[in-house]
Amino acid sequence: MIEKPTIVVIAYNRPISLKRILHSLKEANYDCEDIRLVISIDKADDDKGVKNIAKEFKWPHGEKKVIIQEQRLGLRKHVLKCGDLALRYSSIIMLEDDLVVSKEFYKYACESVKYYKDEVQIAQISLFNYEVNEFASNKQFRTIQDGSDVYFIQTPSSWGQVWTDSQWKKFRTWYDNEEYLGVDYTEKVPSTILNWPETSWKKYFAMYMAHKDLFAVYPRVSLTTNMADVGTHYKEQSNNQQVNLLLECDRNFIFKDLSKSNCKYDSFMESLLIKDYLKIDDLSVNYFGYQEKNKTNKYLLTPEILSYKVEKSWSLRLKPYELNIIYSDEGQGLFLYNTEIQDNKNNNLFIEINKLKYQNGSLSKKDLLKIMKYKLFRLMHKK
């Protein structure tokens, strides 16, 4: 049986964005017919253009339904209301209007739903692949290659995601019962997320996943990319979350059970399995420099220079971080600290520069000067 998720596009007041995603949906590849498309438009003062685009759009692959919200919902309530469509349609693909989809997005969605729909520890299926850590100043994010097309993170995707009715119902029950009240998420969820505004639905879903020890399935090559047009959470257009799209795939996707995967990451996008290689249980991994993770456990693995005893160290040459340990590439870049023993150390500029190059890539002096000029320009014009 072919799983046929309903496609749900969430729109507000960005006509160009809506036109672009609808075009990419129309041009995608579909192996089946009768695919339902729902376009939900939140109320705005000037939404005539968006309404016209949605109503006039010709969808050749099945039924098209346009929902015009009668009252302004805001992003969080709009997503929650559209998420409830999963309870009606069995499964949905939710896409905000500033995304572009790969031609193979629907094939991936169908196959992944079929594979993971009964996996109780999966809260969501992402169509987006992280190439940077959005919670840690967009530092590079790389995963171990294990022969499959997926990896797992304990944080939700908001740039193209799939929910089954069962997955969404569990979240809705948790959310509606306000199970998040009175829970300390400080060491479970990045402070960046916890400080997001109340317009963010993703903040609540992140807390839900941390609370219930759940994961999202992520593809290694992205089936969506984020154009980051100006909107509720973007004050200026950005390319920070632009990723490489899968152009074509003439084979079935290779999935792996969560329990058998070597590619599992926590809500901070840090490795959950490196402790198995090190044979240390009381270990906190802090590749990306989160302050809240520095004193969580007896042992701490990080490229940060800290005032603790170094038990062992590795280079920062192989990517991702874990390969430096797996291949025993010793050096001064990645440190295993014993946080119970103080050891004052001088800051080593050479190590700091190598860390920045490793995490962000090398930039020429000319490029750095351009960035500084741009940042200064933006700062002056904010006043």
Report on this model:
- The protein has 383 residues and is an alpha/beta fold.
- The chain has 12 helices and 17 strands.
- It has a 9-stranded mixed β-sheet with strand order 3-2-1-4-10-6-11-9-13, with helices on both faces.
- Helix 2 links the parallel strand 2 (37-41) and strand 3 (64-68).
- The radius of gyration is 22 Å and the shape is globular.
- The mean pLDDT is 91.
Any key phrases for this structure?
single chain; 383 residues; alpha/beta; nine-stranded mixed sheet; 12 helices; 20% strand
What is this structure, in a nutshell?
This protein has 383 residues and is of the alpha/beta class. Helix content is 30%, strand content 20%.
Question: How is the secondary structure organized here?
Answer:
Elements: E1 6-11, H1 15-26, E2 37-41, H2 48-56, E3 64-68, H3 75-83, H4 85-89, E4 91-96, E5 99-101, H5 105-116, E6 122-126, E7 132-133, E8 139-140, E9 150-153, E10 161-164, H6 165-176, H7 191-194, H8 201-212, E11 215-219, E12 224-226, E13 264-265, H9 274-278, E14 283-285, E15 299-302, E16 308-314, H10 321-326, E17 334-342, H11 349-360, H12 365-382
Parallel strand pairs: 1-2, 1-4, 2-3, 6-11, 9-13, 14-15
Antiparallel strand pairs: 4-10, 5-12, 6-10, 7-8, 9-11, 15-17, 16-17
